Amino acid sequence: MTKYLAFLRGVNVGGQNLIKMKDLCHSLDSIGFLNVQTFIQSGNVSFDSKPGNIDSLQKTVAFQIEKDLGLKIKVIIRTLSNIQDIIRNDPFKNVEWNLHTKFYVCFLYDEPKIQPHLPLENPKEGLELFHLDEKEAYLVSKEINGRYGFPNNFIEKELNVISTARNWTTINKIVRIKEK
């Protein structure tokens, strides 16, 4: 069995695409996934399944959610070992951090067709894309006027690819829980 993490795009944000996590678990249980577990209310879910094609798994989960819960959303899946490698390599290790800084990973649905010159910045939102892998983008969000820019719209516009963003702290917490 392989351990997977699914990141649902735009779930329970701003009153949109509301999903109860217990309903999400039931939906994924019905596919035959094992050990289905959610983390916070923003559409993070882990499950065990036979090793398979990630693209196929993403489509299967999205189809099941639409069928069971009536929501058409994008689902981005990685193996737990993929996420453990990201944490182990710590793309933020050389980035200056302070109390007015947040780190984000944007999980990309596809490889970006655009390869921008880095760093790519949005000063108005306080966002800086400083590292890009095949299917992950790493950003710093700096506080401006008491608010932090949220990277998802910025990444989708600049890279022309669907993504979903997660705070670096959240990613680390999810992996620590799954490793227990």
Q: Keywords for this structure?
A:
180 residues, alpha+beta, 5 helices, globular
Q: What is the topology?
A:
Layout: E1 2-8, H1 21-31, E2 34-39, E3 44-49, H2 54-69, E4 75-79, H3 80-89, E5 101-108, E6 120-122, E7 127-132, E8 136-144, E9 147-148, H4 151-159, E10 163-167, H5 168-179
Antiparallel strand pairs: 1-3, 1-4, 2-3, 5-8, 5-10, 6-7, 7-8, 8-9
Helix pairs in contact: 1-2, 3-5
Shape: globular
Mean pLDDT: 92
Assign the structural class, choosing from mainly alpha, mainly beta, alpha/beta, alpha+beta, or little secondary structure: alpha+beta
Q: Cα-atom Rg, whole angstroms?
A: 16 Å
What are the secondary-structure elements, in order, as H or E?
EHEEHEHEEEEEHEH
- Count all strands and give the number: 10
Largest β sheet strand count, sense and barrel closure: 6 strands, antiparallel
Percentage of residues in DSSP E strands = 25-35%
- Please, how many helices? 5
* N- and C-termini, Cα separation: 17 Å
Instruction: Please bin the fraction of helical residues.
Output: 25-40%
Question: What low-confidence regions span 5 or more consecutive residues with pLDDT below 50?
Answer: none
How would you summarize what this structure contains?
The protein is an alpha+beta fold and 180 residues long. The chain has helices spanning 21-31, 54-69, 80-89, 151-159, 168-179, and strands at residues 2-8, 34-39, 44-49, 75-79, 101-108, 120-122, 127-132, 136-144, 147-148, 163-167. 32% of the residues lie in helices and 32% in strands.
